[in-house]
Specification:
globular; two-stranded antiparallel sheet; 51% helix; mainly alpha; 4 strands
Length: 377
Amino acid sequence: MTAQDQAVISDQLKWSERIAVSIMNKYPKAWQLDGNEKPKWDYKMGFVLSGFEKLYQKTNDKKYFNYTKAYVDEMIDSTGNIKKYDLKEYNIDYLNPTKLLFNLYDVTKDSRYFQIIGKVRNQLETHPRTASGGFWHKQIYPNQMWIDGLYMAEPFYTQFTVKYEKGKSLDDVARQFELVHDHMIDPKTGLVYQAWDESKEIAWADKQTGTSPTIWGRGIGWYMIALVETLDYFPKSHPKYKVLVGYLNEIAKNVNQYKSESGLWYQVADKPEKFGNYVESSASGMIIYAFAKGADKGYLPSSYKTTAKKSFDSFVKEFVKVDKKGEVNILNSSSNVGLGGKPFRDGTNDYYLTAKPKENGAIAYGAFLLSAVELNK
């Protein structure tokens, strides 16, 4: 690390660069995010580095490009394989970091990147599905769609099918969103549950609807970002384009009713008053980003940009702590929570509220970076 890197991060920089440099200082290699001890092909790195990719496109500062490229290069071998990637796990999360390779291939023309994009696309050809056609979250979670799976798969799937397949899979992409919309939206609040078991067999599933019990703030964030980033590539001429824009408007309107007085969102999103509930940084950052991007792209009314700016200022006040080195720390990020597995996670409201929030969670970092880049802050 050069002396310059170790210098105090200037408060004259925009928040987007301050957070990016803070991440690079704390985690010289991107795989170290969230305290990982070994390199892994991971959706969290994919999420944070998608922010670095956008920051590079905005600033043209090569260090942000290099940070992303170094992660990918460490994770792949000379023959165009991802280290420790096992197709048979059928893990939808593996698609997310693969998105980074579209741009890397366009810039470098390294054929390994192109090979990997194709291999991961092929996972979807045999990926198990629910009876109605939804991708399982993983092989170990039969018949289950999880809300974050939409973000993991659909922006990648859409970009691939438009770029290399003349859009032949666009109906399938739309189908994934339709299944979530039809089965995972709570009729009372219009917000989205974290998961749905089509077979209704697993212990956490509601016996009538198959949904998991909790409306998780970050889950709504995943859904909204999945929509705005899929719409980046989804052609306006396609009949399902308007349907997806409609879903985004619907969730934006509903989630806007559930923000705190200062404009932030809660860990258990629909029950602000519940004992132990708290405003949570990753959900708040993701929703701010989706509002800002949705308004910038014309998917949402321009008033959402104003809401995003106000909520961003509240985010900085509530969650951002700058230390004496000028490094940005982000408080109150939900720890990683899930459903089922061993030991069994029952997905109740209390489960989400007893999972201790952490500082500098990768998803909170990524959400803040994306929202800062989008708002030019």
